[in-house]
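INFO  loader      accepted 1 record
INFO  loader      residues=228
INFO  predictor   begin
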Amino acid sequence: MHVPDGFINAPVSLAAGVVAAAGLAICLRGARRELDEKTAPLAGLVAAFVFAVQMINFPVGVGTSGHLMGGVLAAVLVGPYTGVLCVSVVLIVQALFFADGGLSALGVNIILMALVTTLAGYGTVLVVQRLLPNKRASAVPAAFVGALVSVPIAALAFVALYAVGGTADLPLAEVALAMFGVHVVIGIGEALITALTVGSVLTVRPDLVHAARRYEQELELRTAPAGS
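INFO  predictor   done
INFO  writer      dumping tokens
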């Protein structure tokens, strides 16, 4: 999913950089409401974990591999706004020091892998949680579905950007089919890693799972005495 330099033309890359900067500014403000004495240290650990796991590729098909994006995982653990920031930091470090994703395409990569993946995936998590039993364990299957959906959505977002500013001489229909097909498979790997990680943290420290806090809040509301 890392877009290299030159694959998207300069005007679209510049516009994507502006959109990415605006999105990060909004997330910085939103993260103030999510971060506390527990979440702040965890955010650093989440960013480090996403960075490390993104370096590990798993085979998808002949000559094709994928890796964790980590947007939904970060959002479920530390909140959507902070999750976007965690993934964005990873992308910036990768572009600057590891040449993983082009510098001119940094805005494009932040939109695709941080903003779209995290927010669309976490939105799916919230919807699935409403459909599942009202208990903490529901955060795990919700995270699985959110991660599964987030990757092909990001792939389609890339296709939209390619349609506007792609520089390669490739038919749009072929690009869309290839991107969606491969990233559906990658999404399965993303979902498995996300669910396993969230489940592990939920077992040991459920208070550190942002997406599970809603169950505690609803339980407190139901058990609160009348007139309190």
